């Protein structure tokens, strides 16, 4: 008997087996409909095998679906990703089908001539329509517009049988990119790096690279030339470019379009589902060469993937924390390995993990040491707030105010960076000291003045600012503590009433369209001072921007998690790296209460290596990543006793293992979220320990009730 193992999108650890009816032809990767209880479900065939004399009574595969099969290497990839993250393989596989959620776009109705038939009565309008149409096929609306007549005229010709309507399927056409459309002339460093990457692509084998270039050194320029080489060698080559933020996609798409004379496909949550379906179908049919997207684009069904680029590879936005927990950068490397492709991790501030791999010789290390052309790196200065503190209830010190004034006078642009949304991060009661939090949640409410509401950034809960203290009932006792971008904007407007000021954060720029508009007006010089969170601090090229002011350089250093120093270094190096990217030199001023901090010292000295040395040495002593591996288990439930019970059971059931420790269970730093109690356990292991095997063995010993959610986070980035 023939049996198919089918991956079904359910939280179960294995594929389900089904009998294959005699007349049915199925293969690995096929999409099938299979019965599950009373329902039919869509699944992906992971394996087909013969068994003899089975005594199992298997249900049969109902049908092989018309939708295209996943290429076998895509199935390999989703199965590997499931094993790596300990996610259910069927749920991982389902992410590869996300493009199919929308129905196919409706076929388009167009009109064309019917042979040589002429209208019975030739009016000027009718003649214009026939002339405009020629032997083309257009939609009725386009034709009427082209002929400058009302749509009634077109309809009249159809009714008379001079024109006919027919349907074309709305299959998206992706014009083939032309590698020789507009090549850049690369400088020596760039050319050497592009050459090495191109050779990696030609090898048709797994070839990982770190493209390590200072901000504005032309990393994009360089990897696009490697992509061009790949396309010259194989016009069917597919190239995937991953970006950490949707806000960055537009600029890269424009550069690719200019470079190759054809627009790439775009893939992220902001792309409408019918369009995503078109991209998905074009990718699996090999009709689409270049995809620019967010981490979920990793799951597209590529048939000839030759090059994967992870731009801004250090960015923690590549880590998905909700639903399936995975790191896009790590999965990108795995996908390239499975496909036998080249992968390029690009950054001015690579993660310690990636630098470590480059140092070990596992990744080819390509360096771009200087900005392109005449541009130079900005001059970075620390402003010691102990010497020049801002006035009470203001956030910009005198030296920073002066620098903004000078920049304005030169008609150049300023970016004020503060990685905090809203107006004030905390609202508290002067009478009783109560800090306002969301109901049944430990995180503080953030005041937003634009909307006049207090918002929980964790759960999305919001409410109007209350009149009375919810704790003691005092009247008018609530005060806003600390600054967010909106509050800095308020101060800037008071100081420089004539300046054109804008705020860039996920509140003011909620979608791709508004991001594009704001980035465009900044690029065009229509904004003098941009107050921004990290959304605007990376990747962008603003030619008129010469001053970057960091409002609170100490902010990220206070949170004590594993990557606080690394993350702060990266964020500030990226933010300051926006200054002086064109012909005018830039400078950056960092306000700090702790100018002696090693991270800030390294930034001011422009000495990344010193920072990396010191930070890596600390990690080595503690055997933390990249020298060791971590995994977290997070338990949560509305039933506090149930969480305690599962945590205790887990603690009892820890398998014996060497060079591995388990910490906890402990209350999570956010111990209460939406009424759910949260507890964490942390596993640390040496690098050569199979941490996934350990976790599987461990979790297999404990049965958690349905009321307790258990999340496994391999290589955690968030410790909340
Ligand atoms: N070889 C080149 N010829 C012409 N212009 C170049 C070249 N290399 C870089 N540039 C220009 O320099 C600027 C910076 O390049 P790019 O955005 O590729 O840098 P990057 O290294 O990706 O920067 P970041 O890491 O800061 O985002 C761009 O305006 C780009 O067009
Ligand atoms: Zn109070």
From TrEMBL:
Its cofactor is Zn(2+). Residues 464-622 form the Helicase C-terminal domain. Zn(2+) 1 binds at residues 429, 432, 469, 472. Its EC number is 5.6.2.4. Residues 200-368 form the Helicase ATP-binding domain. Binds 2 zinc ions per subunit. Zn(2+) 2 binds at residue 456. GO terms for molecular function: hydrolase activity. Pfam families: DEAD, Helicase_C, PriA_3primeBD, PriA_C. Residues 100-123 are annotated as: Disordered. It catalyses: Couples ATP hydrolysis with the unwinding of duplex DNA by translocating in the 3'-5' direction; ATP + H2O = ADP + phosphate + H(+). Keywords: ATP-binding, DNA replication, DNA-binding, Helicase, Hydrolase, Isomerase, Metal-binding, Nucleotide-binding, Primosome, Zinc. It comes from the Bacteria. InterPro entries: DEAD/DEAH_box_helicase_dom (IPR011545), Helicase_ATP-bd (IPR014001), Helicase_C-like (IPR001650), P-loop_NTPase (IPR027417), PriA (IPR005259), PriA_3primeBD (IPR041222), PriA_3primeBD_sf (IPR042115), PriA_C (IPR041236). Initiates the restart of stalled replication forks, which reloads the replicative helicase on sites other than the origin of replication. Recognizes and binds to abandoned replication forks and remodels them to uncover a helicase loading site. Promotes assembly of the primosome at these replication forks. Belongs to the helicase family. PriA subfamily. Component of the replication restart primosome. This is Replication restart protein PriA.
């Amino acid at each position: 008997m023939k049996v198919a193992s089918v991956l079904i999108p359910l939280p179960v650890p294995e594929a389900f087996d089904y009998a294959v009816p005699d007349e049915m032809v199925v293969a690995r990767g096929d999409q099938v409909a299979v019965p599950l209880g009373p329902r039919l479900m869509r699944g992906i065939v992971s394996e087909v095998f013969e068994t003899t004399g089975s005594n199992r009574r298997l249900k049969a595969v109902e049908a092989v679906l018309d939708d295209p099969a996943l290429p076998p290497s895509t199935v390999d990839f989703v199965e590997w990703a499931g094993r790596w993250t300990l996610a259910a393989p069927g749920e991982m596989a389902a992410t590869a089908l996300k493009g199919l959620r929308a129905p196919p776009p409706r076929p388009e109705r167009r009109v064309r001539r019917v042979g040589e038939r002429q209208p019975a009565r030739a009016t000027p309008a009718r003649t214009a329509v026939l002339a405009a149409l020629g032997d083309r096929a257009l939609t009725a609306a386009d034709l009427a517009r082209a002929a400058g007549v009302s749509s009634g005229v077109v309809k009249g010709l159809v009714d008379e049988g001079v024109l006919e309507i027919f349907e074309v399927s709305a299959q998206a056409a992706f014009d083939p990119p032309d590698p020789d459309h507009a090549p850049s002339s690369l400088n020596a460093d760039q050319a050497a790096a592009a050459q090495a990457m191109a050779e990696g692509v030609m090898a048709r084998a797994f070839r990982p690279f770190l493209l390590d270039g200072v901000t504005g050194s032309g990393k994009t320029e360089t990897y696009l030339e490697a992509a061009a080489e790949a396309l010259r060698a194989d016009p069917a080559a597919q190239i995937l470019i991953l970006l950490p933020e949707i806000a960055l996609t537009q600029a890269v798409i424009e550069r690719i379009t200019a470079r190759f004379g054809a627009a790439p496909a775009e893939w992220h949550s902001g792309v409408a589902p019918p369009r995503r379906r078109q991209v998905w179908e074009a990718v699996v049919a090999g009709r689409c060469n270049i995809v620019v997207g967010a981490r979920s684009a990793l799951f597209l069904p590529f048939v000839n993937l030759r090059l994967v680029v992870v731009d801004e590879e250090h960015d923690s936005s590549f880590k998905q924390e909700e639903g399936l927990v995975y790191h896009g950068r790590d999965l990108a490397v795995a996908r390239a390995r499975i496909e036998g492709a080249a992968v390029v991790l690009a950054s001015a501030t690579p993660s310690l993990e990636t630098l470590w791999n480059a140092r070990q010789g596992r990744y080819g290390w390509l360096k771009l040491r200087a900005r392109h052309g005449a541009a130079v790196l900005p001059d970075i200065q620390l402003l010691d707030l102990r010497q020049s503190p801002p006035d009470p209830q203001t956030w910009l010190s005198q030296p920073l105010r002066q620098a903004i004034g000078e920049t304005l006078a030169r008609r150049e642009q300023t970016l004020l960076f503060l990685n905090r949304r809203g107006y004030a991060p905390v609202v508290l009661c002067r009478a009783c000291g109560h800090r306002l939090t969301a109901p049944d949640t430990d995180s503080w409410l953030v005041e937003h003045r634009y909307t006049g509401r207090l918002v929980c950034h964790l759960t999305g809960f919001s409410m109007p600012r209350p009149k009375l203290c919810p704790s003691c009932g005092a009247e008018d006792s609530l005060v806003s503590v600390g600054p967010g971008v909106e509050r800095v904007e308020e101060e800037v407007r008071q100081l420089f009433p004539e300046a054109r000021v804008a705020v860039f954060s996920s509140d003011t720029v909620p979608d791709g369209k508004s991001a594009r508009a704001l980035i465009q007006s900044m690029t065009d010089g229509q904004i003098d001072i941009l107050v921004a969170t990290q959304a605007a601090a990376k990747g962008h090229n603003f030619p008129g921007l010469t001053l970057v002011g960091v409002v609170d350089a100490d902010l990220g250093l206070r949170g004590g998690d594993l990557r606080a120093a690394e993350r702060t270094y990266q964020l500030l190096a990226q933010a300051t790296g926006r200054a002086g990217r064109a012909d005018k030199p830039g400078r950056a001023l960092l306000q700090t209460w702790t100018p002696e901090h090693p991270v800030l010292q390294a930034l001011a000295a422009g000495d990344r290596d010193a920072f990396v040395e010191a930070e890596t040495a600390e990690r080595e002593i503690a055997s933390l990543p990249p020298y060791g591996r971590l995994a977290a288990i997070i338990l949560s439930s509305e039933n506090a006793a149930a969480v305690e019970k599962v945590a205790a059971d887990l603690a009892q059931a820890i398998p014996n293992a060497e060079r591995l420790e388990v910490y906890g269970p402990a209350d999570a730093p956010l111990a209460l979220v939406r009424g759910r109690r949260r507890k964490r356990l942390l596993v640390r292991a040496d690098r050569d320990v199979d941490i996934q095997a350990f976790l599987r063995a461990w979790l297999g010993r404990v049965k958690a009730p349905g009321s307790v959610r258990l999340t496994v986070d391999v290589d955690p980035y968030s410790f909340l």
